[in-house]
Amino acid sequence: MKKVALFFFVMRIDIITIFPEIFDFYLQQSLLGKAQKRGAFEIKIHNLRDFAEDKHKTVDDKPFGGGRGMVLRIEPLYRAIKELNSLQTKTKSTRSLTPCKQTKIILFSPRGKKFNQRMATKWSKLSRLILICGRYEAVDERVDKLADEKVSLGDFVLMGGELPALAVIESIARLLPGVVGKSESLIGDRITKTGGFIEYPQYTRPEVFTTKDSKKLKVPKVLLSGHHKKIAQWRKKHSKIIE
C-alpha cells in the first residue's frame, strides 16, 4: 500500500516595526521561547528602516494639511509587505519550502476592530500572519489598502503597535499544538462553538489565607468536597464567556 505524506504548516508570524528590540526579550521567554525552539511556530521580526531607500533610512514625514507629530510613510511599508508576501513557509513534516496561501495582514490602529478571543481562535488556524506596528502620530491612511484588517486592543491609545502585537501573538500561540503543556490540555473543552473561551474562578493552596488585618480569604467549600458533579455545576454558574 502506497504511503501518503502528510504536511502540516508551521505557523509563521512576521512583525514589521521600527523598534525590533522591544520583542527580543519577551518572545524568547517561558512557553513562547520554548515553543519556537521546538519548531511549534516561527516568529520573524523586521525593522521597517531596512525597507527605506534613502541614506538616512527615513520611514516618517510631516502630514499633509498640517498637524502635530509625524506619520509613517507608505513606501517602506509597501516594500516590506510586498517582500514578506513573496516569502515561503515551511511544512512540519519535511521542513521543505511550500507557498503559503493562508496569510492575513494586520494593521494595529486605535480605529480598528476590537481584538477578541474569537479572532484569536480564527487566526490560529492560519499558516501566516503579518503584523504592522504603527508609531508616531499615525500611519499613512493608504496603508489600509495593503492590510486585510485593522485591529485595536480597545478604546484607548498607545504609543505604538508593539504591545498589541505581543498580546495578539501570545493569545494565538497558546492555541497552537505543541505550545502549551499538559496543564493546558483541557482548554479545548472550554472553547465555545463561536471560538470564544469559557473561564471560571480557580483557587489553590492554602485553603484559608489570612491578611495582615486578620481577614480570612477562603476557598469555596464545594471545590474541596471532591464531588465532581457539584464542582462542575459551581464552575458553570460562576463561569464567564470571553468572546
Index terms:
single chain, 243 residues, alpha/beta, Alpha/beta knot, 5-stranded parallel beta sheet, 3-stranded mixed beta sheet, 6 helices
Describe this structure in words.
The protein starts with 10 loop residues before the first strand and ends with a strand. The protein contains 6 helices and 14 strands. It is elongated and about 70 Å long. With 243 residues, it is α/β, with parallel strands linked by helices. The protein folds into 2 domains: 11-173, 3-Layer(aba) Sandwich (Alpha/beta knot); 200-242.
In short:
By secondary structure, the chain is an alpha/beta fold.
CATH topology annotation of the largest domain: Alpha/beta knot
Radius of gyration: 22 Å
Q: What structural category arises from helix and sheet content?
A: alpha/beta
* CATH class categorisation of the largest domain: Alpha Beta
Low-confidence region ranges:
94-99
Number of domain units: 2
- Give the termini separation: 46 Å
| CATH-assigned homologous superfamily of the largest domain | SPOUT methyltransferase, trefoil knot domain
Task: Give me the strand/helix succession.
Answer: EHHEEEHEEEHEEEHEEEHE
**What spatial order of strands do you see in the largest sheet?**
2-1-8-7-10
The total beta strand count reads 14
What sort of overall outline do the alpha carbons produce when their principal axes are compared? elongated
User: What characterizes the major β-sheet?
Assistant: 5 strands, parallel
Determine the number of helices (DSSP H or I, runs of at least 4 residues).
6
Mean pLDDT rating:
89
Which percent band covers the strand fraction?
Answer: 15-25%
